[in-house]
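Lab notebook: predicted structure, single chain.

Context: the supervisor wants predicted structures on file for every construct in the current expression panel, including those that have not yet been purified. This is the next one on the list. No modifications to the sequence; it matches the entry in the shared construct table.
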Amino acid sequence: NRGEIPGLLVSVTGTVHDIYRDAFDHRFIFAVIDSGGESVLWAAACGPEADSAIPGLIGATVRVRGLPTCDKNRMHRNYGNHLWSVSLSNLFVLAPPPHDLFDAPDLATLADLRPSDITPQRRHRTSGRVLAVWGRRNFLIQQDDSAFSTIQLAQGKPPACGETVEVVGFPQSDFFTLNLARAFWRKANKPRDDVVSSAPIGCDIRDLVPEPGSRLHGRLVRIAGTIRRIPLSDEPNGCALIEDDGRILDVNPGMVTNAFDQVELGSRISVTGIAVIEKEYWRANLSLPQVKKAMLVLRRADDIRILAGPPFWTPAKFLSIIVILSLLLLAILLRN
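Prediction complete. Output recorded below exactly as produced.
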């Protein structure tokens, strides 16, 4: 432990209430263990090869071993009881979960509840077709009743666009939609027809002005603009920026890593994608939801179409010409 975690090896027995990847360091998982009426946060180094087994631990009775930490500089220092372990080998399953993780109430049953009554609920389940995927663990689905839900995964890779999935997680409300956080997914047994219209809605950036109840959230739209920023190839969750009539919009490449390979800064492009309005979830001290951002999420490489190349006279080129002419003029003056 490099001397950072004082104390002796401690063993705790309890039920796994929740388990998820660390949001800051994806090499670690955190398991919330209910033990004798108290919660213990158990952390362990864990590679991606264990992702498929992690959902099966929720609800299981386990014994974990680890070193208690009282280091106040750690990110989760305010949680309380905290154990650190070097690997999953210090977790022992004493009894399997009594129920299937996906054997949960339907998310639609919460539709008439107030946000303050939704957040404390236990895990709920929903299903639908994946419309957009962005970041490491976020995706948007459209359910059988045409409602949209944003899913934030607890761990693992998200599904691909177009897949029909079942999802289980903790319900969250942004006042307009029911969403699931710290969720797990699996392929649905019953495929369904594509719910996204093949004809995108043509609109301007101003139509996506971030407002909580945007009518375009979850819709397939097409927007034209000038590319002002291209994300780096190794930039995690990086977005491009397009501008039109003085307004700026984020374009998230989603799972399309090569979306902007052939695009030059300053080009006029047409972008087709799923409109996503990211909003805050309800909390006790929040009277109204705040919009984080509006963006388009790409589904495939041909969602980008180049309408016109960048203009020849760009500000950078104009500045270069001025510098060259200034140097020439200086050289002439020095010779005379």
